[in-house]
């Protein structure tokens, strides 16, 4: 079976780390057909559009999408692309790697963040010169869809249930609905859960991240808390992410275009390669995904390393080392 993969490198180091990721995928014994498309600042400059219609259509029809990064136009690119794949959950692992400087080297977390509503649903108004408002939307259906995904996600030997993070003591209607729905679905599935208020979570995760494993949260809380966890594991450079929908999904490194090093061939490809491992796992190839992750881990620990990790290797050197270990 051939899997059609939309490949959208975008701008800056997206142009360097995305080919590294597809090189690694090509080294696997899986039949991929890569179809490349444009998005971002450069194509906007050339055509007036940051996300050409054909790129949107490609992401909306391919089995999965691999995205690099977009510069100034990031919001005009990534929000519609998440919509193109029908994404309702954003998966953000935050894991420290052996040999890499981290504030909390014992951190190994996965955030499952609601990806369509909450305060990011876009209902903002300026009522008067003095007053602006925002309507926060939480639906039972989106909360249920996220919870069902979370229950399937933790249905392996690696996980015992998940933690629901919310602020239902203050936002009783919206986070109350979120919390009650997620807990109810978990009950139906026989999945164990516990709950932590989001402000308390911020403190607890800094002091003792090991007490958490899979964290299920509303949109804004997930955005902020997963960035906080990124800080605990040593910054954005190594972190992958996935935007998953019912039928397709989009995978991207958490970092941006890194304009300060773009074009030099020295970007660390690890986050893009780990994102590609998530893509492989999403398509059902668990062993191949684990093999990529092991090869990346060994390369991070033993080298070669790019400059951001204190080495002097190029993007290509690191990619070749990962492929060798595969
Ligand atoms: P953008 O607006 O596209 O997010 P940015 O200036 O915020 O761009 P980021 O890509 O978010 O840049 O990166 C922040 C810092 O981390 C930069 O100094 C960048 O060089 C570094 N960085 C990010 N990703 C990588 C990577 N893959 N390899 C090496 N350094 C990286
Ligand atoms: Mg940035």
From TrEMBL:
Keyword Metal-binding: no
A Pfam match: Iso_dh
Domain Isopropylmalate dehydrogenase-like: 4-322
GO BP: isocitrate metabolic process; tricarboxylic acid cycle
Keywords, alphabetical: Oxidoreductase
Origin: domain of life: Archaea
Transmembrane feature ranges: none
GO molecular-function terms, A-Z: isocitrate dehydrogenase (NAD+) activity
InterPro entries associated with the record: IsoPropMal-DH-like_dom (IPR024084)
Family: Belongs to the isocitrate and isopropylmalate dehydrogenases family.
Protein name per Swiss-Prot or TrEMBL: 3-isopropylmalate dehydrogenase
Gene source species: Natronorubrum thiooxidans
Lineage summary: Archaea, Methanobacteriati, Methanobacteriota, Stenosarchaea group, Halobacteria
